[in-house]
Amino acid sequence: MSVFEKAKWIWYSNVDTPDDYCEFYFKLPAKDSAYINLSCDGNYTLFVNGEYIASNQYGDFEHYKVYDKIDLGAHLTEKENIIGVLVHHTGKGFSRYKPYKPGLIFEVISNDACVLSSGKDIMCRQSKAYKSGFCRFISSQLGYGYSYDSTKEDEWPLGKGEGFFNATIIDKEATFFARPIQKQQLGRRFEGKLHTNGDGYQIYDLGKEVVGHLFFEIEAEKETNINIAYHEYLLENGRVKRKIWDRDFSIDYKAKKGKNIFSHHMLRFACRYLDISFDAPIKINKIGIQREYYPTKRADFLPSEELDAKIYEMCQNTLELCMMEHYVDCPHREQCLYAFDSRNQMLCGYYAFEGGNFEYARSNLKLMSMDRRDDGLLSICYPCGVDLTIPSFSLYYIISLYEYLKYTGDKSIIFEANDKINEIIGTFINNSENGLVKRFGKECHWNFYDWTPYLSGSLYKAEEAKSDPNINLLFIIALKCYKEICKIVGFDFAYEDKIKEVSKNVVLKFYDEKEGIFLFDGDGKLELTNALGVLSGILDDTQKSIIAKKIVERELISSSLSMKCFAYDALLSVDKGYKDYILNEIRENYTHMIETGTAWETVLGAKDFDGSGSLCHGWSAIPVYYYNILK
Fold this sequence. Notes:
The chain is α+β, with helices and mostly antiparallel strands. Helix content is 27%, strand content 26%. It has 13 helices and 30 strands. Helix 3 packs across helix 5 and helix 5 runs antiparallel to helix 6 (469-489). The two termini are 51 Å apart.
């Protein structure tokens, strides 16, 4: 039986409203066992007889629409059961969400038969308590926060709400796939400890960064407006930094008189501190975050040195906090899947977790392969609802596929992604002139390589479409990775002449014989550029040794944490004796982070990017990889 044969997409109307909440419920006769297949646009929370069961739609596309299979058996009673589904339709494009028509589709299966499915007989309404059309976004990556009015809540998950009516059938097409990995799991409830009791606000400390679902129990003397802000650190004034530019890291809650018990299971908080503001006195009995995590088991390895072991565990913790339905760059600010960030995370995961975390890595590579852009590049994130791409990240995708194949031997992902690989390569070839790849020149092309001078590019600004060493060296490396892929899988490789052409021209145009290095934009002496030069395989041993020496003597502008992997790989390719330099630099860069328990986005941490730097960033967990290969 195919999935959703009888089911229809449904919503409360044909209106497509951004930031919209819809509540559905239906009655299910007594069953010993049953499961529900469910998918929606946006996000969902599933209830059985008023009890929370599951949440979180897999990020996807309509041509790669993922559904969840959720066992209901343990939650069903011998009497009639009430199934409730809350759906949040984002409705506007963000970096981690591609907008489609609103909708929910489901079917309940018992004894191999569909006993109930979504259609016009399902009862629904626009949510009364969640404010639809609120549209206050947290960040351009994360999307919207929410506003909840408890004075309007009722017992709708038990079928006791008012104002419900028959659902509207939505004309919506999708190609369905089962979730390729396990669902997130809920763990310990981290209750915050009162840190500050101020005038009209209180701050609670969770003790460390936690990722998961907000919950609280509050008593109010009267109806009270509450704002709950969250962050990884406190400002010098002792408050959470709620607003950063146009970002607003908070949600609103209107408390009813008396006891308020609340939990939210769609928007995930990632923070250490909760800052609660209120316009009338309240008593906070408890507030915190229930941990949500992807199930992994750490591999049985720790470095022998105590300091190294602390850094290693800190990076493992970072990797775990940056795993949701897919890898995320940072759990607090963005929660986005990037091709480069995830390359580092995959490489570390092959060592950090038992079994290499291969299934999870594969699902990310698959999701990225399903991205579609008219220019043939990969979008900046997946699924992406904004017209933005980092061209160099498309090349890292090819490198990631090669590394995955090398570690797993799984050829199947190559057959699934091969068209995408060749589309990317063709796009770069078509964007070439005089035997060199050019930077991409439209506003949607962010020519980013690193958060360092010369290399950060111009976001949403068109740049001159000229060649530079980084994009060409990366192109050579990606082509050589694809050449190895073709050898393993048995494909013909059609780009040998292109490797030779670009290799010759990049040296002629960008390599300075007198300096013994590649120069970026004529005078940029950069560690990353020259590490890529070494790794590209186009220099002789003497040239590579000169660059390696300049790296360790720090004559080149240093890479940021995420790109240090290329400097380290370049050094090791020249001489394994650089092991001590690499380990010492890791200690130098990471020791000051240990207190927070997570690896920072850059060495500056929260101080970077005008005070918006992340204190938990998956791309910075690379010490895991080097502690393993250098042991």
